[in-house]
Amino acid sequence: MSTEKKRVRKMALRLRDQLEGRQEKSETIAVFLRASQWYREAKRVFLYLSFRSEVDTWKLLEQIWNDGKETAVPRTEGTDLVFCLIESREELMSGFCGIQEPLRSCQTVRPKVGDLILVPGAAFDGRGFRMGYGGGFYDRFLSGIPGSCRRIGLAFESQVFEEIPTDLHDCRLDGVITEKGVHTGYDENNDSDGR
After folding, report:
1. 46 in a structural domain
2. Is residue 193 situated within a structural domain?
């Protein structure tokens, strides 16, 4: 990993950790998400369960259930993410790094046409790229899903930069939603995996 990538990640996470009003901003992000065409058209949502200073998704999880959409959340298996359908918080346990994960008994699912995938990250940019936390979990997961699935980052505005360092394996997102609104308009002439 490049020194520049490490520097940007560290700076982005420091800005996120120091951000005031994270809960209110998270709720505003959820409002923008639920008003989006991506969300309205999706029957199933792949959702990360927030940890530390990430955009809070716990209230959003309840809203997704109330909206009648199936919800899949991630579990780590070795160096990979698998997603499982859950219908209540009782189906969760403490997992990798203390992050809540679905129980082993939950049904695993793969993304299909029309699914919405919401991803966390340390930093995002105006070209649609995201920078994760260095483990490559989401990069591996996103590289293997159909291009018809919408991939949307949830982030605070302080995490969005004009351009972040990227590698060949980094996947481009369809949009990023922050407390300021929806960032889209990425170059549609580029292929869907951002290479």
Report:
1. yes
2. no
